[in-house]
């Protein structure tokens, strides 16, 4: 048990030192409820998001996304989280209007995502919300 805790501490410490979010970055924190189709498992959804959806989204939206898996708290077991990091607010604004809806740039990015989104739709659906934060 001590070795496991030590390993976890080392990994978290390394991640904290090797990755940082610069001042001025815009961070979107998203929470999704997952509805699985047929015999699809939560693991299949998570694997797809990590291996296909996130790389496609990062390229289409000029961002850096990371999936977060529910561990405990208020979210619930059918939830997933995602952190989406844009270089700055202006970069996010290339894709979303002041109302939070896709603008022309966002619609072009979403068109690039269509094949991946269509493939994901076979596994299930996500619904949820987000909050955007500026790093100070």
Structural write-up:
The protein is an alpha+beta fold and 136 residues long. It has one domain (23-134): Alpha-Beta Plaits, CATH 3.30.70.100. The chain is 44% helix and 26% strand. It has a four-stranded antiparallel beta sheet with strand order 2-3-1-4. It is globular. The model is unreliable at 1-11 (pLDDT under 50).
Note the total helix count: 4
The SSE string, one letter per element, is HEHEEHHE
Instruction: Tell me the CATH topology.
Output: Alpha-Beta Plaits
Give the number of domains: 1
Tell me, what is the CATH class?
A: Alpha Beta
Q: Which architecture does the CATH hierarchy give at level 2?
A: 2-Layer Sandwich
The average pLDDT value, as a whole number, equals 87
For the record, give the distance between the C-alpha atoms at the N and C termini, rounded to a whole number: 37 Å
The secondary structure category is: alpha+beta
Strand content: 25-35%
pLDDT < 50 runs, ≥5 residues? 1-11
Shape: globular
Number of strands: 4
| Helicity, as a percent range | 40-55%
Oligomeric state of this protein:
single chain
Strand order of the largest sheet: 2-3-1-4
Largest sheet: 4 strands, antiparallel
Rg over C-alpha atoms, rounded to the nearest angstrom: 16 Å
Looking at this protein, list some descriptive labels:
4 helices, 136 residues, alpha+beta, Alpha-Beta Plaits, globular, 4 strands
């Amino acid at each position: 048990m001590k070795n496991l805790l030590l390993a976890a501490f080392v990994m978290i410490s390394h991640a904290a030192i090797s990755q940082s979010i610069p001042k001025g970055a815009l961070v979107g924190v998203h929470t999704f409820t997952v509805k699985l189709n047929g015999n699809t498992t939560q693991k299949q959804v998570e694997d797809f998001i990590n291996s296909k959806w996130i790389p496609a989204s990062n390229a289409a939206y000029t961002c850096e996304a990371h999936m977060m898996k529910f561990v405990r708290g208020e979210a619930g077991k059918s939830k997933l989280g995602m952190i989406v990091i844009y270089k700055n607010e202006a970069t996010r604004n290339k894709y979303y209007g002041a109302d939070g809806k896709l603008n022309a740039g966002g619609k072009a990015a979403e068109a690039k995502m269509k094949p991946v989104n269509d493939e994901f739709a076979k596994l299930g659906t996500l619904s949820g919300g987000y909050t955007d934060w500026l790093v100070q």
